[in-house]
Design brief:
Distance between the termini: 31 Å
Strand content: 25-35%
Strand order of the largest sheet: 1-9-8-2-5-3-4
Helix content: 25-40%
Number of strands: 9
Order of helices and strands: HEEHEHEHEEEHEEH
Shape: globular
Length: about 170
């Protein structure tokens, strides 16, 4: 809850960012893929590392209206464009086509619309949205991990872009 109200200087005291050597992220937009692991709200600060891009995220409304409104205001104040996952695909596509970066939490249970994959020895339905977006716009999927390295300390690692080859299911 505190992170959106922290200054850049305060964030940099708690977070280190590492970008994979040779990662070419300066050209067109890309799809950022991450998990709910650790403190993914820190990804808002990717916009400071890559000021040449606008950043957006696919999100799911929270059940508590007030908490949802708080997070949406905080994200918007930091320049993040939000795309409600229930309102469709095309606004996010247009954002990517215009050179934006769209973040997607890839570990969302996708039900019948997802592809079934093993997860800790069990099959679960995984969203194909990152691959579908990347294929539609012909851009890369950039994996991002966040690791807790200590009390109120995190490391964010931005990987090399992956090609979304084959079907969205195969790319996922």
């Amino acid at each position: 809850l505190k992170i959106p109200s922290m200054s850049d200087a305060q964030i940099w005291q708690h977070v280190t960012f590492q970008v994979a050597p040779g990662a070419d992220l300066d050209g067109k937009g890309w799809v950022a893929v991450l998990a709910h692991m650790s403190n993914w709200e820190l990804l808002i600060w990717l916009s400071r590392l890559f000021p040449q891009h606008r950043f957006g995220a696919i999100y799911q409304k929270l059940a508590n209206r007030r908490v949802d409104a708080h997070f949406n205001r905080s994200r918007a104040a930091l320049g993040i464009t939000l795309f409600d996952r229930k309102e469709g695909f095309w606004d996010a596509v247009a954002f990517l086509e215009s050179g934006g970066v769209v973040g997607v939490l890839a570990d969302q249970y996708a039900g019948d619309s997802g592809t079934w994959m093993p997860f800790f020895g069990r099959l679960t339905s995984t969203t194909t949205l990152p691959a579908a977006l990347a294929r539609r716009v012909d851009t890369g999927i950039v994996p991002i991990s966040i690791t807790t390295t200590g009390t109120a300390r995190w490391q964010v690692v931005v990987g090399n872009p992956l090609d979304a080859v084959g079907s969205p299911e195969a790319a996922t």
